[in-house]
């Protein structure tokens, strides 16, 4: 479940005054009343699309059996905003008992900033560097600026081709944390986000770093830089002298209420610092999950050589929402800064101190070992296809949308995402023909156009709430007892289980010039692929589990390169005829 924290009466009144004071421009949430509720597709439409999506996966006999398995219990769940909202949040994220720090969280690399040149040689391990603190402070300043704009309701409402998009996810960006519970975790958030501090992670220690004073005035860049430096000094001293006892509850509340997290990594191996894939892995899982607070909605990570990235908790918001915050900060950190005046009476940073029972320390040691094995099993490869950008795709006579594989439902109130089942019969026909020397070039390109057409048709259906997977999930959740489950034979059918095993989970976060992301596979024998499409190139990230005998991220990367090259050559050859 998602719960918004209750502000004190004084702070709540102040927050409402802030919002009311800015009413001249369109409010961030001014389009919310215009958004329709997410529709529930008809059973017939979902059944038809579902059966078509099975054709590439099943033999003739298996497909005939699946056609008979269409006994669903239709029900609707009363909800304030969307029938899908709590179902998706709980079933996809909060009830899942696997470790979330790799299985749920995603990561992204922020492009290097010429104003903070990457250190030519690796800084001394265990020590924060000037370029690290300087760049972290600059990114923090711009993210805080975004938070202020959001709190005032001045963030421009987003649209897609003139259609208003739901802005509700932005309410779960700042001051948002996942709270562990026994059977179903909880998301606690605040809007307006009026916490005055951020959470700093440094040398595996946490510290509260105030960035607003008691009157809500934001710290200047110089103050943020000084606050980070002072927090680093205090943690260094703390580790020299040993921690003092303090209640766990107070430290947790401080961490949970922080606006967002910032991690300064100072113990990353030099070889990883110098490698783009090494940095990506560090942004994903650090060293077995160390020096992170993965339950925060997002964390800014800055390495000792000045490279920066983001780690996001996927449960409360989708990556595109956090991505907008990060990309705006990445754009604004280049060039002059319109700074604020220094905030008077800014509190000093304070390390969070813990008194942990021995039994908990034993459990932590075990979990650290599990985390190390999980991180060591994840393989990440980065790819850049320089000639295959949006401009060239358009020259093929197709829209770049034909290459996207996640549908947004933000055109509906509190909408999130829908799966695009890209493995269509048309896509299989094209793939099989493409490497067949007996198939003519013109026929191959015709099959390509048919595959694109099928993909776009499904994409458009999914974007208007007529996809398969969220509807079936909603119906499956409505089953109340074994008797109903026995009648809903679709969910027991092997073809359903097979079609829900996504060997290739893909997502798009574009553009990728300043921000490229990645995530882990969703099944043991699968791939996680994130891609970013720019005008002149395509960037992608491939991940797999090294323990799998069925996958190889490096081999898939090379296959993607070869496929793009072959498609490019075929299209260019067709032009010359």
TrEMBL record:
Keyword Transferase: yes
Source organism (scientific name): Linderina pennispora
The UniProt record lists the keyword Acyltransferase: yes
GO MF term list: acyltransferase activity
Full protein name: Acyltransferase ChoActase/COT/CPT
The Choline/carnitine acyltransferase domain, residue ranges: 38-233, 251-560
Family to which the UniProt record says this protein belongs: Belongs to the carnitine/choline acetyltransferase family.
Highest classification ranks of the organism: Eukaryota, Fungi, Fungi incertae sedis, Zoopagomycota, Kickxellomycotina
Catalytic site positions: 314 (proton acceptor)
Pfam families: Carn_acyltransf
PANTHER family reported in the protein's UniProt record: CARNITINE O-ACYLTRANSFERASE, CHOLINE_CARNITINE ACYLTRANSFERASE DOMAIN-CONTAINING PROTEIN
Alphabetized InterPro entries for the sequence: Carn_acyl_trans, CAT-like_dom_sf, Cho/carn_acyl_trans, Cho/carn_acyl_trans_2
Keyword set, alphabetical order: Acyltransferase, Transferase
């Amino acid at each position: 479940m998602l719960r918004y924290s209750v502000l004190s009466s004084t702070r709540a009144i102040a927050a409402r005054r802030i919002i009311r004071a800015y009413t001249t421009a369109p409010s961030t949430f001014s389009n919310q009343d215009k958004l329709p509720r997410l529709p529930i597709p008809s059973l017939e439409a979902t059944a038809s699309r579902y059966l078509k999506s099975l054709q590439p996966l099943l033999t003739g006999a298996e497909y005939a059996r699946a056609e008979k398995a269409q006994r669903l219990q239709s029900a609707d769940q009363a909800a304030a905003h969307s029938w899908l909202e709590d179902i998706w949040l709980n079933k996809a994220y909060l009830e899942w008992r696997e470790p979330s720090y790799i299985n749920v969280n995603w990561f992204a690399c922020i492009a290097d900033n010429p104003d903070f040149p990457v250190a030519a040689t690796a800084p001394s391990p265990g020590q924060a560097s000037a370029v690290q603190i300087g760049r972290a402070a600059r990114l923090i300043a711009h993210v805080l600026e975004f938070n202020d704009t959001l709190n005032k309701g001045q963030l421009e409402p987003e649209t897609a081709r003139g259609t208003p998009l739901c802005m509700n996810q932005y309410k779960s960006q700042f001051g948002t944390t996942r709270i562990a519970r026994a059977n179903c975790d909880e998301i606690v958030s605040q809007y307006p986000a009026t916490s005055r501090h951020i959470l700093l992670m440094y040398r595996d220690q946490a510290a509260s770093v105030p960035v607003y004073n008691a009157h809500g005035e934001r710290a200047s860049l110089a103050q943020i830089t000084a606050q980070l430096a002072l927090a680093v000094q205090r943690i260094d001293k703390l580790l020299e002298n040993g921690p003092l006892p303090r209640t766990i509850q107070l430290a947790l509340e401080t961490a949970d209420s922080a606006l967002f997290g910032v991690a300064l990594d100072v113990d990353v191996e030099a070889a990883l610092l110098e490698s783009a894939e090494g940095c990506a892995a560090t942004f994903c899982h650090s060293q077995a999950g160390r020096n992170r607070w993965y339950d925060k909605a997002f964390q800014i990570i800055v390495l000792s050589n000045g490279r920066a990235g983001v780690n996001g908790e996927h449960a409360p918001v989708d990556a595109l929402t956090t991505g907008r915050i990060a990309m705006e900060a990445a754009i604004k950190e280049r060039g002059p800064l319109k700074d604020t005046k220094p905030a008077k009476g800014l509190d000093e940073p304070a390390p969070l101190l813990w008194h942990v029972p021995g039994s908990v320390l034993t459990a932590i040691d075990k979990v650290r070992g599990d985390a190390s094995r999980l991180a060591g099993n994840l393989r990440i490869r980065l790819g850049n296809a320089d000639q295959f950008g949006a401009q060239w795709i358009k020259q093929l006579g197709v829209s770049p949308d034909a290459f996207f594989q996640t549908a947004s439902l933000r055109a509906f109130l509190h909408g999130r995402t829908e799966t695009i089942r890209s493995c269509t019969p048309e896509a299989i026909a094209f793939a099989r023909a493409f490497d067949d020397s007996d198939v003519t070039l013109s026929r191959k390109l015709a099959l390509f156009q048919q595959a694109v057409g099928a993909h776009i048709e499904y994409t458009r259906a999914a974007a208007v709430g007529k996809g398969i997977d969220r509807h079936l999930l909603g119906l499956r959740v409505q089953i109340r007892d074994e008797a109903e489950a026995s009648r809903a034979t679709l969910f027991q059918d092997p073809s359903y289980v097979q079609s829900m095993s996504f060997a290739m989970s893909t997502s798009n976060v574009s553009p990728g010039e300043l921000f490229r992301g990645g995530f882990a596979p969703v099944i043991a024998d699968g791939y996680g692929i994130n891609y970013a499409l720019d005008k002149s190139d395509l960037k992608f990230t491939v991940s797999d589990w090294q323990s799998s005998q069925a996958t190889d991220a490096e081999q898939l990367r090379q296959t993607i390169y070869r496929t793009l090259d072959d498609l490019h050559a075929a299209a260019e050859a067709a032009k010359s005829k």
